[in-house]
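Budget justification aside, the reviewers requested a transparent look at the raw inputs and outputs of the sequence design task funded under Objective 1. We therefore reproduce one unedited record. The lines immediately below are the structure tokens for a 591-residue chain.
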């Protein structure tokens, strides 16, 4: 009995759609690339309900004839490939001939197209790979393609779509990837009747400013290099404008956005020690390479490529970025005026300065209880490195099996390596991770604010924070929660918010970076274990507001942190379940 069957075209198209169009953003990418390949100079993207209801792309490109309007929906119908060798000389965006066939298999599609030298155009209506009608129509020159009710015949896949704010964020990211490198074309993006972006043709820097705000014009350095192997053009951010997330990092090859770990590492390594810890640069870099030296046919979405000489590209890119940072370094902002207090007169000839006399108490011991004369030598502190850290986690003791430490009596605390606080408990010496301890204190304080009266501080000068359209929409949804925690934010326009007040526990810092990271955490995988969004927000805010490792604390600050920590119901573990306190028992100290 034969068991192998040839799949019908409609089923094969739906399978192909799973590779090319896994969500509305996938359809947006394919349609935008088709419009660019058609030679359009103006492309308008219209989206409703984050692409569920409608995705429409209108362009002024070359248009199609009657027969091409029908053939473009067939599998492997393409105007770019005629023989296998053409795969290594690709200069266009699309070439597989699967996109429209895949989209038509899972949606209701209407195509209206007219060539510039024709009086009438063609209208084609398709539902689930079945042609409903094809007829002449009156329409502008170019192409308008509408995708309605995406996944209408694949309900299982439709059910896996996220809420509109998340799906639209993916659409917006695709829009940025396409428009950033094609800055010589005009684009618009509208969502639910509102214009989100209206981008005019111009330079790359103008396009960056159009997507992220005019402030970026002052934040970027130009990068330029040309060799026999590669031509590099683009911009990288000044070190002081680095961010805590990798969101604004774009590399393009021959006009196509790609993901390439080695090239990304080349850019970041060029900064060396210029970046603060856990911060990343923004960059928008385009590479032009001989198509025969790369393979872009290794992934259905064409975001991954292989290079013939990857090591040379790495070295050239890193060198180009490093030279740019050197040419436009912060030297122009340095003051070479010597402070007056350092203008000391020269010492008399033969003068020998006296050796300084240092006074200290050799019997001082911060761990000695009142009245005790015991001396404790802590010459070797290597055991502190054994405290759990994210790189080398220890098995956690379940809270119910953890011995509840008794709060230390008020007394001196000792800070070591800007990370640990050492104090005495009745059960021995306690080593406390100051950042995790503060996270626990802030998390408990924020959760208590929910439903109560928030503790807030009004800013003398309100700040403006700008976000992407999708992030701004998400932030708008979170405003009631943030108000409970002490934030006062109000929308200024579709992408900008004014911050008038912040929680009293929030120290001075980059408020834009804090809100960006909060949104990243909220929509990221690290928050999936929390069932309520209030818990996600509390954890994210506590992490960012907590005092960081390396921060020097005064004696009063350490004592206050200890008092706040031991007042928490679960002082032993951080909100994410990591150990805060390690107790060294007296018998261990005696060793």
């Amino acid at each position: 009995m034969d068991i192998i069957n040839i799949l019908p075209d409609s089923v094969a198209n739906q399978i192909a759609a799973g590779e090319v169009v896994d969500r509305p953003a996938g359809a947006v990418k394919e349609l935008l690339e088709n419009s660019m390949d058609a030679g359009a100079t103006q492309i308008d993207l219209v989206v409703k309900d984050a692409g569920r209801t409608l995705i429409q792309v209108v362009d002024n490109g070359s248009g199609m004839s009657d027969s091409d309007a029908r053939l473009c929906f067939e599998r492997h119908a393409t105007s770019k490939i005629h023989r296998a060798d053409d795969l290594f000389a690709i200069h266009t965006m699309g070439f597989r001939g699967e996109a429209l066939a895949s989209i038509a298999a899972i949606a209701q599609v209407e195509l209206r197209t007219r060539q510039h030298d024709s009086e009438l155009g063609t209208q084609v209506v398709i539902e689930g790979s079945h042609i409903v009608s094809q007829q002449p129509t009156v329409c502008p020159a170019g192409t308008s393609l509408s995708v309605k009710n995406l996944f209408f015949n694949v309900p299982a896949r439709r059910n896996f779509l996220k809420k509109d704010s998340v799906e639209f964020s993916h659409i917006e990211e695709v829009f940025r990837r396409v428009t950033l490198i094609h800055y010589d074309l005009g684009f618009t993006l509208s969502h639910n009747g509102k214009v989100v972006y209206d981008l005019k043709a111009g330079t790359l820097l103008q396009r960056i400013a159009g997507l992220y705000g005019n402030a970026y014009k002052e934040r970027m350095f130009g990068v330029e290099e040309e060799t026999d192997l590669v031509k590099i053009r683009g911009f990288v951010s000044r070190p002081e404008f680095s961010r805590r997330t990798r969101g604004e990092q774009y590399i393009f090859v021959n006009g196509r956005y790609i993901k390439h770990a080695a090239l990304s590492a080349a850019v970041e390594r060029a900064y060396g020690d210029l970046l603060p810890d856990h911060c990343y640069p923004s960059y928008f870099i385009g590479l032009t390479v001989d198509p025969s030296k790369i393979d872009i046919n290794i992934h259905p979405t064409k975001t991954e490529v292989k290079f013939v000489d990857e090591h040379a590209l790495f070295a050239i890119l890193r060198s180009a970025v490093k030279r740019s940072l050197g040419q436009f370094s912060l030297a122009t902002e340095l003051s070479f005026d010597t402070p007056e207090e350092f203008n000391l007169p020269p010492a008399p000839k033969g003068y020998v300065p006296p050796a300084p006399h240092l006074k200290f108490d050799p019997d001082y011991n911060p761990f000695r209880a009142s009245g005790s004369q015991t001396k404790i030598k802590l010459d070797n502190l290597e055991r502190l490195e054994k405290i759990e850290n994210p790189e080398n986690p220890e098995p956690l003791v379940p809270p119910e099996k953890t011995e509840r430490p008794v709060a230390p009596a008020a007394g001196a605390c000792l800070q070591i390596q800007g990370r640990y606080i050492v104090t005495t408990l009745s059960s021995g010496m306690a080593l406390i991770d100051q950042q995790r301890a503060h996270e626990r204190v802030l998390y408990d304080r924020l959760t208590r604010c929910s439903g109560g009266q928030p503790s807030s501080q009004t800013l003398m000068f309100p700040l403006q924070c700008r976000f992407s359209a999708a992030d701004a929409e998400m932030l708008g949804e979170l405003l009631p929660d943030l108000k409970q925690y002490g934030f006062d934010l109000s929308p200024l326009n579709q992408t900008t918010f004014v911050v008038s007040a912040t929680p009293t526990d929030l120290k001075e810092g980059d408020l834009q970076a804090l809100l960006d990271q909060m949104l990243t955490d909220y929509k990221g995988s690290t928050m999936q274990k929390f069932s309520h969004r209030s818990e996600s927000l509390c954890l994210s805010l506590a992490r960012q507001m907590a005092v960081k490792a390396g921060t020097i604390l005064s004696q009063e600050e350490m004592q206050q942190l200890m008092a706040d920590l031991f007042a928490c119901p679960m002082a032993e573990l951080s909100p994410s379940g990591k150990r805060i306190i390690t107790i060294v028992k007296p018998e261990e100290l005696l060793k």
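The chain is about 30% helix and 20% strand. The domain at 381-522+532-591 is CATH 3.30.1370.100 (Ribosomal Protein S8; Chain: A, domain 1). Computational costs for records of this kind are itemized in the attached budget.
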